[in-house]
Design brief:
The protein is an alpha+beta fold. It has three domains: 42 residues; 120 residues, no CATH class; 101 residues, VSR Endonuclease (Endonuclease, Chain A). 41% of the residues lie in helices and 21% in strands. Strands 9-10-11-12 form a four-stranded mixed sheet.
């Protein structure tokens, strides 16, 4: 029978710096490479019984690699704030003061002044505040993806549109202010999913008029539906259909809802994830055609 791996009680359930543990005599190099431990980052290990998540890797960076005055930032901060999802293997993003940037493939370090007011603590880790995270996301991500996350910050009530506007005003004329203003002009916290945000931004950036978000439709009998995006002046609706629409019960509900919308004089365009990803130009042509048809 194989002997169980050597697992000192002080290291169980913990994240630790491998070379320091070996130097202290708690493990040998051979034991460190055994099945009891998992390498998270260069030189940083964890108990193999801990589930590997992006959050766990953020803990590893915060405890052993983050320079003084730095903070977990960007998409990693959004994940810790329960706004965005980041894959466990994706690099941890951090914000660090000038000349304090660690260089490793597991970490993306952005260099900028980090004020005490830009940081909060989550699970004991220094993390950029929701407002500072929104500013950074607008700088570091393509506009469409930044809007997706800022929409979710607004919907989660972690920030308000007024706070974002005040931040833009306070930094007007400075580095990154124009980019932030552009992203902010596209933000609308009423979107109920990231894909709805992507669809709306794609429409606006194409040059089409900005649609209304979560528009409520009524007929003589009362409430009919709340549609994802709408041009109410011409009764054109755009609906994003996620995977949950595929169930038999949901299909029955959707068809009954569609019939009522059509009876109320609405033209409805349906967009799926594959069409949004693979055929965005075709989607835009359909929307353009529908608007032109209704405006004749």
């Amino acid at each position: 029978m194989a002997r169980p791996p050597h697992r000192p009680p002080t290291l169980r359930g913990k994240i630790f710096h491998g070379p320091s543990v070996v130097a202290a005599g708690l493990l040998t190099q051979t034991q460190l490479r055994g099945k009891a431990w998992r390498r998270l980052l260069r030189g940083v290990y964890a108990d193999a019984e801990l589930p590997v998540t992006h959050e766990l890797r953020c803990h590893a960076v915060a405890a052993h690699l983050l320079p003084e005055g730095g903070a977990i930032a960007g998409r990693s901060a959004a994940a810790l704030l329960r706004v965005g999802l980041v894959g466990f293997a994706e690099p941890v993003e951090i914000l660090v003061p000038t000349c304090a940037r660690p260089r490793m493939s597991d970490v993306i370090a952005h260099v900028s002044a980090v004020e005490a007011s830009d940081r909060c603590r989550i699970q004991g880790m220094p993390v950029t505040t929701p407002l500072r995270t929104c500013w950074d996301l607008a700088q570091w991500l393509p506009a469409e993806e930044a809007v997706v996350l800022l929409d979710r910050f607004l919907r989660s009530s972690l920030v308000t549109k007024a706070e974002l506007a005040s931040l833009g005003t306070a930094r007007r004329g400075g580095y990154g202010s124009a980019r932030f203003a552009h992203v902010l002009s596209l933000v609308d916290g009423r979107a109920e999913s990231p894909q709805e945000s992507r669809l709306r931004v794609m429409i606006v950036l194409s040059g089409l008029p900005a649609p209304q978000v979560q528009w409520e439709v009524y007929d003589a009998a009362g409430f009919v539906a709340r549609v994802d995006l709408a041009y109410p002046e011409v009764r054109v609706a755009i609906e994003y259909d996620g995977l949950w629409h595929a169930s038999a019960d949901q299909l029955h509900h959707d068809r009954r809802r569609l019939n009522r919308l059509q009876a109320a004089g609405w033209l409805v365009i349906h967009v799926t994830a594959s069409r949004l990803r693979d055929s965005p130009d075709a989607v835009l042509r359909e929307i353009t055609g529908a608007l032109a048809l209704r405006r004749r």
